[in-house]
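Chains adopt folds. We examine one example:
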Amino acid sequence: MKIVSYRRKGVASVGAVVGDGVAEIGALLGVGSLRELLERGLLGKLAGIKLATEEDLSALTFLPVVPDPRHLICVGVNYLDHLREVQAAGVARPPPRQPSLFLRVADSLVAHQAPMLIPKVSDQFDYEAELAVIIGKAGRYIDEQHALEHVAGYSCFNDGSVRDWQFHTTQVTPGKNFPASGGFGPWMVTADEIPDPHNLDIKLVLNGTTMQHGNTSDFIFTIPKVVAYISSFIMLQPGDVIATGTPAGVGFSREPPVFMKPGDVCEVVIEKIGTLHNAIAREPSPD
């Protein structure tokens, strides 16, 4: 099942995708968001409900899949081919012994079909296609063997990176948290439809040209390993999001570098999930 967060007539809601339409489930289940649906453990109830399409998808304004995650954790350099690419670009990066993590804030997220914004302080806005993991069940010190039981579903993520700011110091936080820099969508595909998330084709397409093409089988750290590691120091909560890293082909590692420009169109395409579509625009000047 595909679960989508959206706004209709100014009101935020959550629905299930049925064909080319959406069945509103927020009012049906008495919830206002996907995070609340997961917090209340209501996802399983949808299997027994006959859903009727109420609105065409094209009529909706998408929201980030989880607009308000408590925790948004990203894994850096988690594909073997990307590690080799980074090393070849001259970055001293030994093979990681544990997942390399950083945090994003919620207002850095932007929805499917909304523009990702180049900040006015930089022209080095890079793309990163990633598989996003959405937590459905809370847990601390989660065992790897049971980690996937805590996953509600999966989505597409574009970890838009402002490279010069990312490399101001050894801490990448500034380059990963500009407003509206991270695309997230179009929906969450529930975990029952993706029994093996470690064999998914993943691509980044920029203006019709494939820039990244990999497979999640190339992960350095599997999803259970990452979930177990993160849950050692954070109590993972329903609606939390983990972005699992990006394959080779990022713009800053190319010669010459390729950075996104206003008017570009960037798409993340992941097998069994769909396509996250974002135009690229310049951050508007303050009034």
In short: The first helix runs from residue 26 to 29.
